Amino acid sequence: MPAPPPSAATLPLDAQGIHALAARSMFELFSSVSQGMFLIDRAGRVVWVNEGYQRFLPALGFASLDEFLGRMVEDVIPGTRMRRVLESGKPELIDLLTNKAGTFVVSRIPLRSEGGEVMGAIGMVFFDHPETTLRPLISKFAQLQRELDDARQALAAQRLAGRGGTGERQRRARYTFASFIGSSPAAAEVKRQARRAAQSASPVLLLGETGTGKELLAHAIHAASARADGPFVSVNIAAVPETLLEAEFFGVAPGAYTGADRRGREGRFRLADGGTLFLDEIGDMPLHVQAKLLRALQEGEIEPLGSNRLLPFDVRVVAATSRDLHAMVQAGQFREDLFYRLHVLPIRVPPLRERPGDIPALVEALYEDLLLRSGVEPPELLPDALALLAGQSWRGNIRELRNVLEQVAMRSDSPRIGAAQLAQVLRETGVEPAAPLAPAPRPGPGRQDEEALLLRPLAEQVAELEHRAIGAALRRHGGNRLATARALGISRAKLYARLAENPDLQVDN
Ligand SMILES: Nc1ncnc2c1ncn2[C@@H]1O[C@H](COP(=O)(O)OP(=O)(O)OP(=O)(O)O)[C@@H](O)[C@H]1O
Ligand SMILES: [Mg+2]
To answer: What GO biological process terms does the UniProt entry carry, in alphabetical order (predicted)?
Structure first.
């Protein structure tokens, strides 16, 4: 028998009466101070929603209460932990919940029968108003959440880069201009243009065949720019499925999707904030994403998917493609307005066949790299072998040259190889050898070129010399850093600093 209701003046003194009074008062208190309350049954179905809660329904994607009631709670409230409360029977007095309706302070309390059995749970939402005193806490939470997501992404990218993955790269430049080997007039010119571009804030468009070093130059431009301390973020457009491109670029607002991504995700534009965004294979961008990209570049703002907020960003764009963008514009496959937006500082990266004079230096650099990576000493190439290399058309450019040299290192057991053996390797790797280019000058530049080279900034020349010296010493000492530093008469600290600046010199381990 329930206790008789207390009169206005008298407090009940029996346990049941106190309980009933306290329960009613607390319920009323919660329903007046909370922004909303709802109830789920033992199965996790939403069975009741108070008036306050109903105003969240549109933000959660429901036009009417009828659509909301009777559904499983996790299907209608992204990110909720109500089911856990049902299962554990333990209340969660204060929690922060972020979903597409916003970030809220929430409370979840199990409801028990007289026998103590969990019959359902009540959920309460407090403080959704931005002007409440909890605002600093909520924004700190959101900020930490974003930082955590960034850190996770960066970690994933690093792991991928460590495995040689192509989709994501570490968020720092891996190459400098010193890594772009070549002193032929064509190579010197492309480096000059790229250096000049590094000084400017305008978009850069790198155009050139596959394997010519566009990505390497993009890193180098970033490293030589005023943004060098900022992130270098790259997106290989050809490698991202079309349906994911927008999310990749612009990010996803928290709660835009249910499931794994419900916390939201930063887009590349925001990750590159303060740094450089490298848009690799820009020619592969679908037209509808081109329109959004153009708008972002024009406005300096992006709108994450599922959000109606515009977020500012500050990035310098470097784009690259091996496709003929001009022809694509004419064929209606690439937006003309975007083309002109990106075409401010176009740089044509020459194919290897236009700079055969660089082949000996490239062979040397690629050999150094091979030795450091695999520990195998590649055979010396005799002059007629170098001349043969210089005569090839190298459709895959430097990447192809690198492959051929790897094959040479793996297949030959003599310390020196000449043209005949090299031709054999070329055939075995699928290159029908063209006539040699005779004679292969060694070392490359003629007198005029040499003078032009000596008139470059001294710091650059010194850096190049250092790079070569360190590479040669490392090679001589089998990658042993202590021996290398001793041989060059420099401190180990200085060697480590140079290795950090020139990751291409480092031994992978
Ligand atoms: N001038 C150079 N000196 C030394 N190595 C180079 C040079 N150019 C390119 N490479 C090397 O050749 C390979 C291909 O270069 P990169 O990836 O930059 O080419 P890409 O133009 O971006 O090619 P793709 O269009 O196929 O993506 C890389 O391993 C790079 O380090
Ligand atoms: Mg590339």
So the answer is: regulation of DNA-templated transcription
Task: Answer whether residue 154 shows pLDDT above 60.
Answer: no
Are 237 and 279 within 8 A, CB to CB? yes
Pocket flag, ligand 1, residue 417 (CB < 6 Å)? no
Full set of structural domains in the chain with CATH: 34-132 (3.30.450.20), 148-350 (3.40.50.300), 351-456 (1.10.8.60), 458-509 (1.10.10)
Q: Please, which pLDDT band fits residue 13 given cuts at 50, 70 and 90?
A: confident
Please calculate the CA angle 269-274-280 and round it to the nearest 5 degrees. Answer: 45
Question: Three-class SS of residue 36?
Answer: strand
Q: What are the tokens at 415? A: 């310390």
471 Cβ closer than 6 Å to some ligand 1 atom: no
216 CA to centre of ligand 2 in angstroms: 8
Q: Does the C-beta of 345 come closer than 6 Å to ligand 1?
A: no
- The share of the chain scoring above pLDDT 90, in percent, equals 48
Chain mean pLDDT for the chain:
84
Determine the Cα–Cα distance for residues 249 and 269; give it in Å rounded to an integer.
6
Q: What is the pLDDT, as a whole number, of residue 208?
A: 96
Q: Is the CB of 212 under 6 A from ligand 1?
A: yes
pLDDT of residue 167 exceeding 50 = no
Which of 209, 212, 323, 397 is the best mutation target for the ligand 1 pocket, counting ligand atoms within 8 Å of the beta carbon and taking the most?
212
Ligand 1 probe mutation, 216, 368, 504, 508, most atoms within 8 A of CB: 216
Residues 37 and 14 sit within 8 Å (Cβ to Cβ): no
Ligand 1 in reach of 278 Cβ (< 6 A): no
How far apart CA 305 and CA 267 sit, in angstroms, is 10
Q: Provide the pLDDT for residue 169.
A: 42
Question: From the CA of 206, which ligand is nearest?
Answer: 1
